[in-house]
C-alpha cells in the first residue's frame, strides 16, 4: 500500500499545474522575425512555412542540407541564408541560429524548429506575450501523433515538462527553471545582451542552457505547452524513428536538469514502478491506485499532445519504454560518448 500511495502522491505533486499557453491578444505592437535552422528539412518546411506566410520576417538558415531545403524555402517566400562551415566548438543548431539572428531585423526574435507548425494566429500570440511581459519564453509544441509508436513519447514529454519546474507543486505556474528546445522567443535587445547563441555555442540542449543563462541574470523566464499555438509531429510513424529521436539528447538534457527536479522525477518514476511491481501483493485495492494514476496522467497528457484516456490506461507500457530507452541513451552519451543526429555526431 505504501508504494501505491507514494505513486499517487508523487504523480499529483509533480504534475500539479496545467501548462497550456496563456490567453493573449493577437495584435502585435512591433516587428518580429522567425528564424528557422534547417538541415535536410524540405518536407517539414513544406508544412511549416505556409503557416508563417503572413507572420513578419521569416529567415531559413540552410545548415549544409543535402536535399532541397533551400529551394523549398525560397519558393515559399522565406529569406534563405546559407550557414558558413561549422566552426570548432559550435553545435550545428546554435551556429545556424546565430547566423540567422545576425540578419534578423525584428524587435522580437522567434527561433523555431522546422518540424513544427504554427496554429492560426499562433505566432502573433507568442510575440504578444513576449511584448507584454518583456520576458524570455520557450514553448514545447503540442504533439500531434498518428501511430502508437509515437504515443510512446508520453513519459519522455512528462519528464521534459517536469524538469523545467513549471508543473510541480510548490512552484509558480509558468515560471521555468530551464527551457524547451523547439521554440525560443524573446526581445532582440535581450538576446544580444545575453550574448546570443555564441554564449551557449557548445551546448547540445541549447535553449535550455540559454534559458538558464537568462534566469541567472534575473530575467523572467517562462515555459508553456503549445496547445492552440504551436504544434509538431516529432518523428515518422515508426518505432525506430521514435527511438532514434528521443535518444538524440535526452540523457544530456536530464543530466543538465536542476537537482531538485531530478529528485522529483526519480521519485515519481521509482514509486510508479514499485507500485506496478507490487500489484499482485496489493490485490484489488490496487485498482484505486491504477485508476487514479491513469486519470491524472490523462489530465496532464491531453495538454501536451493528442493523447486519450486509452493511452493513459496503458501507462505501464509507456514507463517500460522510457526506462529502456533512457538506459540506452545514458550508455550512448556517457559510455560511448556520442549520439548521432541528422548525419552529425554530437557530444
Give a structural overview:
It is a single chain. The chain is an alpha/beta fold and 347 residues long. The protein folds into two domains: 2-16 and 253-346, no CATH class; 32-235, Spore Coat Polysaccharide Biosynthesis Protein SpsA, Chain A, CATH 3.90.550. It contains 16 helices and twelve strands. A seven-stranded mixed beta sheet has the order 3-2-1-4-8-6-9, sandwiched between helices. A three-stranded mixed beta sheet has the order 5-10-7. A two-stranded antiparallel sheet has the order 11-12. Helix 2 (42-48) packs parallel to helix 3 (69-75). The longest helix is centred in the last third of the chain and has 21 residues, at 315-335.
Secondary structure: elements and pairs:
Blueprint: H1 2-14, E1 32-38, H2 42-48, E2 57-62, H3 69-75, E3 79-82, H4 92-103, E4 108-112, E5 116-118, H5 122-133, E6 136-140, E7 142-143, H6 148-151, H7 154-163, E8 183-187, H8 188-193, H9 206-216, E9 221-225, E10 230-232, H10 239-247, H11 250-255, H12 259-277, H13 279-282, H14 286-304, H15 309-313, H16 315-335, E11 339-341, E12 344-346
Parallel strand pairs: 1-2, 1-4, 2-3, 6-9, 7-10
Antiparallel strand pairs: 4-8, 5-10, 6-8, 11-12
Return residue spans where pLDDT drops below 50 for at least 5 consecutive residues.
Answer: none
Query: Which oligomerization state do the chains in this entry correspond to?
Result: single chain
Kindly report the spatial arrangement of strands forming the biggest sheet. 3-2-1-4-8-6-9
What structural class do helix, strand and pairing data support?
alpha/beta
**According to CATH, what is the topology of the largest domain?**
Spore Coat Polysaccharide Biosynthesis Protein SpsA, Chain A
State the shape. globular
SSE order in H/E notation? HEHEHEHEEHEEHHEHHEEHHHHHHHEE
Strand segment tally: 12
How many H/I helical runs? 16
CATH class of the largest domain: Alpha Beta
Distance between the termini: 43 Å
For the biggest sheet, the summary is: 7 strands, mixed
Please tell me the total number of domains.
2
Whole-number mean pLDDT: 90
Give the name of the CATH architecture of the largest domain.
Alpha-Beta Complex
How much helix is in the residues? Answer: 40-55%
Cα radius of gyration in angstroms: 20 Å
Strand percentage, roughly? 5-15%
